[in-house]
Amino acid sequence: MPALPPASDLTICFAHAAYQLQAEFSTRGHAAKSFEVRSLDDFKARAPEADVVVVSGLWRNELIAACPKLRFVQSVSAGTDQYDKAAFATAGIRLASAQGANERAVSEHAMALILGLTRQIHLARDNQTARTWRPMIGDRARREDDWAARPW
User: Fold this and answer.
1) DSSP alpha helices (H): ranges in the chain?
2) The pLDDT of residue 1
């Protein structure tokens, strides 16, 4: 695979509709030139300038042929199904994903959802919106559960 140019000659394209990736990169004091695009049209127009692309949902495999300088693509997401890996290999472009970058946040979110479902927070929200206040429930099978008391 062809090597990247020296940092002083490197151009990075940050392509994401929402994330402020270039702003964060600029605080690092790196010698590479960079630019940011937020739409597919802008990405298609400017991607051929880049040696490196940092991208997520804006990626289109047709860009491989349109970007002769491109040597490295960093996916902002963990998944890489949208990338044509065979075409990347043929073009000598390396692909990296962000797999594992959000593992703590995802696991914390999963635990929060489990606790929320166990305590039936969704039903409490709906009842509050409807201004429905239920009486005390004597039937244990119909009550929200104490998570620690579950027979796991």
Assistant:
1) 21-26, 40-46, 63-66, 85-91, 103-118, 121-129
2) 65
